[in-house]
Amino acid sequence: MGQSYRVAILGATGAVGTELLALLEERNFPLSELKLLASPRSAGKKLKFKGEELTIEAVSESAFEGMDFVLASAGGSTSKAWADAIVKAGAVMVDNSSAFRMDPQVPLVVPEVNPAAAQNHQGIIANPNCTTILMCVALQPLHDIQPIRRIVVSTYQSASGAGARAMEEVKQQTQAILNGETPPTESFPYPLAFNLFPHNTTINDQGYCEEEMKMVNETRKIMSVPDLKVTATCIRVPVLRAHAESINLEFDQPFDLAAARQAIAKAPGAELLEDWEKNYFPMPIDASGKDDVLVGRIRQDISNPNGLELWLCGDQIRKGAALNAVQIAELVAQNNWLERPAASA
């Protein structure tokens, strides 16, 4: 990238916001200006960037003026409240919330999977749900060889998906239980330490929670297969920041195991991790802090000759959120896609 860009992080004090800040530095994103925006209660606080302290500003319409990108990670209601102002200011909003993901006018992008979709933005590009991002990175290289007909996925989701407070709460719960005390439950409805439970988002009439339906609908949109058969069961587990997923895939015909492993090993954003002799496969402790989605235990489904089983782990805060957002901004900048396509007559 030959030029530099003016970037604002909306929600700079949250778990994803601070990771966005770290990634902009780590990846040396070409910046001419960086603004840190948050609620008025956080205004005046300071965060370090490249050895300097940046002061957090209270979000306002004027704060977006002159920005090229706004990386938003402050929740759906905040994104909806400021989207018009961001677009009006001429910035591209990369939104980490679910507010615009299923809007047909808003691209939903995983750069390793559907990069060209980012070109067709009207000022907003949606960052998918964390579990969906991780799964699509692993599945697209297989889908490119042989179309996937059905996905059955069970997720094992870390506390980080509920934010920094939830991560701290799990630590407090662990200590409380070890001390024989009642664990605090504010971020979650039940204790997560030494426990697990189905994802506690709203359940629909079919018995699927919001998190599960995000995986169903977002995967179809990202992979451009509107009728793809997807079913998901999402579980919250006592892990701090990396999600795991058990995935069963069905194809029209058998999928060669060697070809599947080779495809995963070569895929951008994925890393094949298998040691069958040691029974060693991806674990959250391996994935935490890493950019790549770790994929392993690829095997034939013994109940279905056309089926494959695989297991993955990925850092929810990085590739599941902040990294994907920064990669979207890099993609738009590298291809000079800041300008919005002209409306058709």
TrEMBL record:
<dbReference type="Pfam" id="PF02774">
    <property type="entry name" value="Semialdhyde_dhC"/>
</dbReference>
<dbReference type="GO" id="GO:0046983">
    <property type="term" value="F:protein dimerization activity"/>
</dbReference>
<comment type="function">
    <text>Catalyzes the NADPH-dependent formation of L-aspartate-semialdehyde (L-ASA) by the reductive dephosphorylation of L-aspartyl-4-phosphate.</text>
</comment>
<feature type="active site" description="Acyl-thioester intermediate">
    <location>
        <position position="130"/>
    </location>
</feature>
<comment type="subunit">
    <text>Homodimer.</text>
</comment>
<dbReference type="InterPro" id="IPR012280">
    <property type="entry name" value="Semialdhyde_DH_dimer_dom"/>
</dbReference>
<dbReference type="InterPro" id="IPR012080">
    <property type="entry name" value="Asp_semialdehyde_DH"/>
</dbReference>
<dbReference type="GO" id="GO:0009088">
    <property type="term" value="P:threonine biosynthetic process"/>
</dbReference>
<feature type="binding site">
    <location>
        <position position="236"/>
    </location>
    <ligand>
        <name>substrate</name>
    </ligand>
</feature>
<dbReference type="InterPro" id="IPR036291">
    <property type="entry name" value="NAD(P)-bd_dom_sf"/>
</dbReference>
<comment type="pathway">
    <text>Amino-acid biosynthesis; L-threonine biosynthesis; L-threonine from L-aspartate: step 2/5.</text>
</comment>
<dbReference type="GO" id="GO:0004073">
    <property type="term" value="F:aspartate-semialdehyde dehydrogenase activity"/>
</dbReference>
<feature type="binding site">
    <location>
        <begin position="13"/>
        <end position="16"/>
    </location>
    <ligand>
        <name>NADP(+)</name>
    </ligand>
</feature>
<dbReference type="GO" id="GO:0009097">
    <property type="term" value="P:isoleucine biosynthetic process"/>
</dbReference>
<dbReference type="InterPro" id="IPR005986">
    <property type="entry name" value="Asp_semialdehyde_DH_beta"/>
</dbReference>
<feature type="binding site">
    <location>
        <position position="210"/>
    </location>
    <ligand>
        <name>substrate</name>
    </ligand>
</feature>
<feature type="binding site">
    <location>
        <position position="316"/>
    </location>
    <ligand>
        <name>NADP(+)</name>
    </ligand>
</feature>
<keyword id="KW-0028">Amino-acid biosynthesis</keyword>
<feature type="binding site">
    <location>
        <begin position="41"/>
        <end position="42"/>
    </location>
    <ligand>
        <name>NADP(+)</name>
    </ligand>
</feature>
<protein>
    <recommendedName>
        <fullName>Aspartate-semialdehyde dehydrogenase</fullName>
        <ecNumber>1.2.1.11</ecNumber>
    </recommendedName>
</protein>
<keyword id="KW-0560">Oxidoreductase</keyword>
<dbReference type="InterPro" id="IPR000534">
    <property type="entry name" value="Semialdehyde_DH_NAD-bd"/>
</dbReference>
<comment type="similarity">
    <text>Belongs to the aspartate-semialdehyde dehydrogenase family.</text>
</comment>
<dbReference type="GO" id="GO:0009089">
    <property type="term" value="P:lysine biosynthetic process via diaminopimelate"/>
</dbReference>
<keyword id="KW-0457">Lysine biosynthesis</keyword>
<keyword id="KW-0220">Diaminopimelate biosynthesis</keyword>
<keyword id="KW-0791">Threonine biosynthesis</keyword>
<dbReference type="GO" id="GO:0051287">
    <property type="term" value="F:NAD binding"/>
</dbReference>
<dbReference type="Pfam" id="PF01118">
    <property type="entry name" value="Semialdhyde_dh"/>
</dbReference>
<keyword id="KW-0486">Methionine biosynthesis</keyword>
<feature type="binding site">
    <location>
        <position position="101"/>
    </location>
    <ligand>
        <name>phosphate</name>
    </ligand>
</feature>
<dbReference type="GO" id="GO:0071266">
    <property type="term" value="P:'de novo' L-methionine biosynthetic process"/>
</dbReference>
<feature type="domain" description="Semialdehyde dehydrogenase NAD-binding">
    <location>
        <begin position="6"/>
        <end position="121"/>
    </location>
</feature>
<dbReference type="GO" id="GO:0050661">
    <property type="term" value="F:NADP binding"/>
</dbReference>
<keyword id="KW-0521">NADP</keyword>
<feature type="binding site">
    <location>
        <begin position="160"/>
        <end position="161"/>
    </location>
    <ligand>
        <name>NADP(+)</name>
    </ligand>
</feature>
<dbReference type="GO" id="GO:0019877">
    <property type="term" value="P:diaminopimelate biosynthetic process"/>
</dbReference>
<comment type="pathway">
    <text>Amino-acid biosynthesis; L-lysine biosynthesis via DAP pathway; (S)-tetrahydrodipicolinate from L-aspartate: step 2/4.</text>
</comment>
<feature type="active site" description="Proton acceptor">
    <location>
        <position position="243"/>
    </location>
</feature>
<feature type="binding site">
    <location>
        <position position="157"/>
    </location>
    <ligand>
        <name>substrate</name>
    </ligand>
</feature>
